[in-house]
Amino acid sequence: MREKLKWIPNQHDVGQDNDGQITALLSNFTLEQVKKVSQFQRTYEKFEKTPLHHLASLASYLDVEKIWIKDESFRFGLNAFKVLGGVYAIAQYVANLLNKDIEDLSFEQLKSSKIKDQLGELTFISTTDGNHGRGVAWAARELGFQARIYMPAGSAKERLQNIINEGAHAEITAMNYDDTVRYTSHLAKEHGWVLIQDTMWDGYEEIPLWIMQGYTTLIQEVVEEIEQAPTHVFLQAGVGSFAAAVVAFLRQYYEHEITIVLVEPHVANCYYESFKAGTNEFITVGGDMQTIMAGLACGEPNPQAWQLLNAYTKVSISCGEEVAATGMRILGNPLNTDTRIVAGESGAAPFGCFYEIMTNNRYRQLKDTLQLNSASRVLLINTEGDTDKENYRQIVWHGKYQ
């Protein structure tokens, strides 16, 4: 039987800020920069902060001081956080075409016919497991442009239909996620379309950085609401863009070090394998990468995200399918007066790992390494709701996750 959790501590000194490259990367995620991002996003007329839940009863049950869960299933009515990155990247791209600063523009201005006449037709293209592509499709449609979205083999038909419903051309390929990224990059060059992808490579860094900056609105909302800093933050990895953006902001916002834990599925555990290698170079993994945690099925780290996460992550965890499934069921069936949280497979994975660490003596060493105790204040982010409702029911109602 495969181990529920595999874990590896960072073999380098965590939190050393004397690296010039790291310092340069951090400068993209200062409070001043994050405020510029959220200022634009808040110009959307239906913008609302997503809820931050304090699960007091669960915290007492697991013997920690606090458990906070930021619930991104409410973001823009799209059931996931990814739209924050897509909409900001597209807006920033359009602002550059107009030779304007984005802080001088609003969402409504970018939707105007005057802007459309200036720019003509634009088509945005992306690879997605579902949530990112839906966000890109939504943003393109809202701003009057076209979108083409490609999904890896095994993607859920419901997630495909959600993207089509946003007005985009969308299809599922026969390739895994990383090969589909390469395919869409080729299509973008061939047709003159604009690639909106949340990972980067040499020569393609600007747009992925804008996407990462777009994500920071959610962590700004968290720190504005909590009175005490978290001691521990569990984050989904994937390509690492989301986790790195959160970590880069928190590193500068709080004066003391926060214990960062990365989580990814066994079949797509490029960060775990990279930490295990113990060098400053990341490792890629391949294959079909079929997992219920579809949003985390990525085998190649974002290089800049890797630099940040390698600098500040305490422990990297690779987890089994049943761990995410357990997280979904517990969050959906709260204790006492705690709020019910509908968490999708990728959204629940970090909580599933945290719960396993706190309740399974097999992981006592990991619990001690992380110094999880009655004084711990743990922050988790539910990055998606039930974006595949049929699969959600199969897991939560029937316990089927294979």
Automatic annotation (TrEMBL):
Residues 48-352 form the Tryptophan synthase beta chain-like PALP domain. Its EC number is 4.3.1.15. Keywords: Lyase, Pyridoxal phosphate. Its cofactor is pyridoxal 5'-phosphate. GO terms for molecular function: diaminopropionate ammonia-lyase activity. The keyword Transmembrane does not apply. NCBIfam families: 2_3_DAP_am_ly, diampropi_NH3ly, PRK08206.1. PANTHER family: DIAMINOPROPIONATE AMMONIA-LYASE (PTHR42937:SF1), PTHR42937. This is Diaminopropionate ammonia-lyase. The lineage of its organism: Bacteria, Bacillati, Bacillota, Bacilli, Bacillales.
